[in-house]
Amino acid sequence: MPMINNVKRVIAASMTMALLSFSANAMADLTPQLVKGAAHLAKVGFVPFDDEASQIVERDLTMSGRVDLVPAAASQSVDDVAQLDLKKWQQQGVQYLLFASGSQGDYQAQLIELSNKGPSVVFNQSFSGSTTHLAHQIANRVYQALTQHPGYFNDKVVFVSAVRSVGEAPSFTLKTADMDGLNEQSWLQSNFPILSPSLSGNGDKVVYVRFYQGQYQLCLLNLVNQQTKMLLQSAQLLDAPIFVADNKKLVFAWAKTGITHLYLMNVATKAVTPLTKGWSIDTAPRPILGDNGFTFTSNRGGSPQVYRYQLASGDIQRLSFSGHYNAEGTLMTNQQLVMLAQHWRSFGVAVQSADNSVKTLDQSLNVQSPSVLPQGQLVLYKERYANRDVLAATSLDGAVKWRLIPDQGDVEQPRGGV
Amino acid sequence: MMLARFLLLLGTAALLSSCAEVSAPLLSTGNNDQLYQVIPQSDQGQAITEADIAPGQDQSYFFDYNSAKIRKVDLPALQAQANYLLTHPEATVLLIGHTSAQGSHAYANALAWQRTMVVAEQLEQQGVNAAQIHQVSYGMEQPNVLGFGPHVDQLNQRVELRYENKN
Asked: How confident is the model at residue A157 (pLDDT cuts 50, 70, 90)?
């Protein structure tokens, strides 16, 4: 039975040294911290509406690193856009003005561009649903209008929270949260590691592996009805499942023959087909954005490298060539390969371009588990920060970086999804 | 307890000269992390012995970087464990595979599993019944020594042999 946190979070923005931190109240589990914002921020005036929804919109847009949000003074709060003194906003250097009206659960939001030619409406749209959902939708719409890329604040992240204390058994908890750290929910707690949780393409299911009574169990968790199904059980290692083929199939790693290879499962029938064989390790499948195929990590060349598997033909093609250790690659539609790469004694997020040139995106301490959000602009990963493992994200253009910092334990194996 | 195990391991772990990696300065956690024990430079490269000949006792076998090959120095100890298991057919062992705490989680799980496989195969080649051997991969989840650097990694790249039942 999942433990569900329904904690109303209040956001307080504050500047601390070079870092812009903004945190929810003391009950919050994941606190966002903007590490680096874009050099040129869109200056957006913001007239608060509903308290909680406004705070979430403010939290999300600040976290995006693409917006310089200018909240209105309390005295400027108005009920109708016609009451706004647009010239006064423009004199403050505000380029856009975000205004919403309505009642709880149903809002009309407008983004107005302020220029010397006069105000023009960028969008004027109604939003409905739960407070958090509609606040994320409004933030997404503003993000998309300003960056031309889809927003990600209604996306989910799945991860394992690990609590380790000297002399005590470690505790692992499977968790999900919204991409801004809100709505954190716990689904499974174990003293054994929980392996490689991954979200379905539509974000309503999580597939993961747990170790229970001497057996590995490949499990499917439905986030909507909160039911868990065990799809496969084995005394041999099961690991790294991902959804492919429109969420109808899974690719996963299984040491059925002693060495870890990749297998395909039809979720409806649970029929399993081997995909790879041989004497090398094949594991860590990752989806190819916009494609039904996947990449995987194999040491068939002597050291871990990223390969591509064509589901239709079974053809395998090596993708990474630079360096001794590349793993967990996500292949983008523009053929960029985002992967975990070793550099000297450390690991970072690396991006290999179509011409095979490689640049390091972020090489913080002990970086692990990179994955690219479905919107294709942000890389999620785990890094070591302030004595714990935290969730971090960097934009592919390198301009923006933020963290989500847990109030307890380490964040492990984060994976994003819709 | 962690510190005691750490100090014990310093005296028993294999020398790193055969490790394929290039030696590099230890990384500092930079955060005064109390959980992380970073081995001082002056303590690196201690004298080495193989795993003790201790049949019927829990012990660990260490592996080179990215390797699932048993070191020759550990073969006598494994032979002694095999002999014990042969003469105690009711005894069972759990082989727990581990890797260093960096890199890919999934690759670490697979490599740690392969390490348990080669130890299991070594025992079975000596006649031990496969039903006496259980395996689990912890990958990078339960390091023996917390911290960063090749010497820390070396102490974590291991298979623990634990007796579940010696009756």
From this structure: very high
